[in-house]
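Hello support,

Our group uses your service weekly, and this is the first time we've seen a run hang past the timeout. The protein is Ascorbate-specific PTS system EIIC component. I'm not sure whether the cause is the sequence or the server load. Input pasted verbatim:
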Amino acid sequence: MTLLKFLQDFLAEPAILMGLVALVGLIAMRKPWHQVLTGTLGPILGYLMLAAGAGVITNNLEPLAQMIEKGFHLKGVVPNNEAVTAVAQEVLGTETMLIMVIGLAFNILFARFSRYKYIFLTGHHSFFLACLLSAVLGTLGFKGIELVLIGGCFMGAWSAISPAIGQRYTLQVTGGDEIALGHFGSLGYYFAAWIGGLVGHKERSTESIQIPEQWGFLRNTTISTAIIMVVFYLISALAAGPSFVASLSGGKSPLLFAFLSGLEFAVGVTIVYNGVRMILADLLPAFQGIADSIIPNAVPAVDCAVLFPYAQTAVILGFISSFIGGIIGMLVLGSLGGILIVPGLVPHFFCGATAGIYGNATGGRRGALVGAFINGLLLAFIPALALPVLGDLGFANTTFGDLDFGLIGILLGQIGNQLGHLGIYALVVLTLMAIFLPNWWGHSKEIAMNNEFKENDE
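Update from on-call engineer: The timeout came from a worker crash unrelated to the input. Re-ran successfully.
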């Protein structure tokens, strides 16, 4: 158990994974020891900075969510990955750890021997998916090594396939940088990109919005984020009332607390941007050593926040639009008598922002707004549909927030309920066939797409 706990903690730390990947890549490139040292520490420190910024954002979103719930009388299930996995660990800890370890091994094997050359580096999302798989498969009656192997296979497969599905969109976001998306809200982002291409024009990017000279300070992302979030906090604080806000602020003036919280949120976003720059500066050159020597053509699949600097205005527009979609989705569920999914600000910020970035890449401003709005609707409907397949976890006052978790849970749950264990075994076989059979066709097609993108970019 001690070894398993160590492995779980080790593999759940994206900073360590990124440092390990950089270390292996630099050694494979036979770099001198001082470059190995600095090149390994760079991604680790960069991700720790990113995580620190994300922590500031999350910590400041929590009181905002409470003020909104109190001020606008919202009651229901709040999607939050961290919360539901904390509940799950009480009954599914060992299964989750084993699925995560086996899943990472499958991801590496699939990357080495199939056309899906993506190494999933977002360790905490791997942990969340392992927890979901252990809950759903356990509810269907799987136990022991059978549960672990099936769960690990699905996790490793989706860790390799998920980045590949939307890589053509990710290339448009990054301008051709050789990274992929490693985040299990991916289907929502890719759908936002597809919608963006239908409703808008990518030439009218959110990043080229013309601002009059007197409003030029809004081009500073930190300043504009601070202003928008201060307005959010002040409205929520006024709606919640001074006595309730005082209980959150430790006795500090409610309005001052709201004002400072909005500013701290903006600081967190800026820390994230700086951490991302550190990650990319060292990780991408080091990863080339792995791509050349160990897993040919390997591509790192990284956290969604790594994409934020590519379209900083789309981040804020996507968050706001997604949150509005979540509110409307909640109202629709309430009118239909369904389970009320209260918009969780953490998933709506990170997932909504990323959906806005992808929508902007294909459809500009309109794509960012519409794509993120639809993402917000899905963040209300999908968790509601997924609750019945989570077994005992479905009775908790929270659930998984990001789209991939809900859709995978619904798929496995429905197949298991309708076809039993045989249906799950059949899905394992289909998954392996999807990974290995179309090797030659998919590989040549992917190379052609990448070459086409680079030629168009030039």
